[in-house]
Amino acid sequence: MTDTAAQPIEVFYWSTPNGRKVAVMLEELAVPYRVNFVDINNMEQWTPEYEAISPNHQIPAIRDPSGPGGEPIAIAESAAILMYLGRRFGRFYPQDERQRVAVEQWLMWQISSFGPFLGQAHHFNWAAPEEMPYAIDRYHKIAERLYGVLERHLRSREYVAGDYSIADIAIYCWAARHARHRIDLEDFPSVRGWYEAIGERPAVKRGMAIIKPGTVDAASPIPAWEKRKDNRPL
User: Could you tell me the pTM of the whole model?
Assistant: First the structure.
């Protein structure tokens, strides 16, 4: 389908990299949507009502009131949502099979590697209750390797898989937290150029800016274990 949604798409959202994938995609598509904030810090994802939308109790999820056959559909998992929206609106997800495989390959790379491992790096760098040098070193080395994979791939191309696509959106939203991964993009110039170019897209700026009023989306400069030593509030 390529028509626009008759009713806004509901987005169950928090301003994490995975949540922002959907916000950026919907901004790029310029279709109506409504954000329902699910505060994962206050465990709002752990309700029976939310489980009916997202069985794994994770964000993001969407509910499209104008789904297949004109019937509502709920979708969880960020990659599944991006692929659905790409098909639904006929943009950023090519129909040509060879091009589509390339996009899917890099989208799967993001959700299987450039995401889970970087999330672990972020956790042990900033959020773990105790300093764990082995874990910090392990996930930093993995982060460097993954950014290196992306660096080598982008040396000969503007986007990760042909034209700008859902793969770029997914990877960008995780790369946006490179400081939390303790990665300096100066060490990865091709990634830096790609990252800066995508970050200048107006839709990307709008999607990345969505945050629940009154919340702060920034890692503390002081790791959790240092706060515990000084009896500071976490």
Answer: 0.93
